[in-house]
């Protein structure tokens, strides 16, 4: 395993100007991963490293040092390597075709899509991309300072749902323990990442719960928020993690689905399952992807039609 990490890192540091791409709807794992890699490349190797985001940064990650320097849909300077983190296809980074370079590397823990890159580390068993980056840095003897430890622990806490999801295991605790020893503070991360909600975002949770639907005697739970509501409450954002968490607290469910009608006829779908149901397979039917227990896709249909399509697809997997 370590030789993969040496080769991958050795190839990265041959480049001087690196653009780091993260996925749409950025979360703590892709942002933590990108900031950690950026910090090491800049501080320890004197490289130019820039992060590009296709969307604004969620407020729950604003406590992370340097997060405000991420380019939001802004044209980066010329670069000679594009490094994808927590995403395995350029399509989901939002980087326009005209801005792409030839060299693309990838480090990710999502299930593999149809595209492969000559230089990639894809480990779907890893809890998070931050876990892989921790192992990459340790294998290459790159020192991890307190700020970097905070980035990495944020990704782990985000993707394990604060050590609750099925990807929580012994390795996760061992790495978290090391990062805490360096100075990352799990209580602080939990507070900022999960517990700094606005009044309006909690009202949105109430709105979704009020309209909750149940199918197949409670095995499939579905929440949605329509364009009309979202367009009136746009600037408060959508707290999908809190809503997904609420849907997942129901006894006996096998699949939970949360739909957001972002634009008329554009519906974002979040799928979660506690164990056997493969969300990735369902999301793939609609051109999306993710992991077995958490995946997503976009359905370009009116909300009612999207609900019908996803419920029918979901029922087949229960
Ligand atoms: P969420 O429901 O939080 O948006 O996403 C759950 C997981 O699935 C995340 O790891 C996310 O990166 C992944 N995911 C969400 N939407 C898509 C998509 O359209 N395509 C792919 N490949 N992965 C997705
Ligand atoms: Mn992730």
Q: Topology of this structure?
A:
Elements: H1 2-12, E1 17-21, H2 28-43, E2 48-53, E3 71-72, E4 81-85, E5 104-108, E6 119-122, H3 129-139, H4 146-159, H5 170-182, H6 186-194, H7 199-210, E7 213-215, E8 220-225, H8 227-232, H9 240-247, E9 255-263, E10 266-272, H10 279-284, E11 289-290, E12 294-299, H11 303-315
Parallel strand pairs: 1-2, 1-4, 2-3, 4-5, 5-6, 8-9
Antiparallel strand pairs: 7-8, 9-10, 10-12, 11-12
Helix pairs in contact: 1-3, 2-4, 3-4, 4-5, 4-6
The chain binds guanosine-5'-monophosphate (5GP) and manganese (II) ion.
Q: What does this 3D model show about the protein?
A:
- The mean pLDDT is 95.
- The chain contains eleven helices and twelve strands.
- It is an alpha/beta fold.
- Strand 7 and strand 8 form a beta hairpin.
- 37% of the residues lie in helices and 19% in strands.
- The strands form two sheets. Strands 3-2-1-4-5-6 form a six-stranded parallel sheet, with helices on one face.
- It has two domains: 193 residues, inorganic pyrophosphatase (n-terminal core); 117 residues, Roll (Diaminopimelate Epimerase, Chain A, domain 1), CATH 3.10.310.30.
- The site of manganese (II) ion has 6 residues, from loops.
Number of domains: 2
Main sheet summary: 6 strands, parallel
Low-confidence stretches: none
Overall morphology: globular
Gist of the model:
Helices cover 37% and strands 19% of the residues.
Output the keywords.
318 residues, inorganic pyrophosphatase (n-terminal core), Diaminopimelate Epimerase, Chain A, domain 1, 2 domains, six-stranded parallel β-sheet, 37% helix, 19% strand, binds manganese (II) ion
């Amino acid at each position: 395993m370590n030789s993969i990490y040496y080769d991958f890192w050795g190839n990265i540091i041959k480049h001087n100007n690196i653009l780091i791409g993260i996925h749409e709807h950025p979360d703590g794992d892709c942002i933590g991963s990108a900031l950690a890699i950026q910090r090491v490349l800049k501080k320890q190797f004197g490289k130019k490293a820039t992060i590009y985001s296709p969307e604004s940064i969620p407020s729950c990650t604003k406590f992370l040092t340097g997060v405000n320097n991420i380019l939001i849909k802004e044209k980066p300077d010329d670069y000679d390597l594009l490094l994808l983190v927590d995403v395995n296809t350029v399509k989901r980074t939002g980087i326009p075709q005209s801005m792409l370079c030839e060299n693309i590397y990838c480090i990710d823990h999502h299930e593999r899509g149809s595209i492969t890159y000559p230089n990639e580390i894809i480990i779907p068993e890893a809890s998070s991309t931050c876990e892989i980056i921790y192992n990459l840095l340790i294998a290459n003897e790159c020192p991890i300072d307190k700020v970097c430890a905070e980035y990495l622990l944020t990704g782990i806490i985000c993707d394990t749902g604060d050590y609750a999801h099925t990807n929580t295991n012994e390795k996760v605790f061992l790495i978290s323990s090391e990062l805490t020893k360096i100075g990352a503070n799990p209580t602080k991360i939990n507070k900022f990442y999960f517990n700094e909600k606005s009044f309006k975002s909690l009202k949105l949770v109430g709105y979704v719960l009020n309209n909750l639907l149940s199918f197949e005697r409670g095995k499939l739970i579905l929440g949605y928020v329509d364009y009309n509501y979202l367009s009136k409450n746009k600037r408060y954002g959508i707290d999908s993690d809190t809503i997904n968490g609420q849907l997942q607290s129901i006894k006996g469910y096998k699949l939970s689905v949360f739909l957001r009608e972002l634009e008329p006829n554009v519906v974002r779908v979040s799928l979660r399952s506690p164990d056997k149901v493969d969300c990735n397979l369902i999301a793939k039917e609609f051109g999306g992807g993710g992991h077995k227990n958490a995946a997503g896709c976009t359905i370009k249909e009116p909300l009612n039609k999207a609900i019908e399509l996803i419920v029918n697809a979901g029922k087949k997997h229960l």
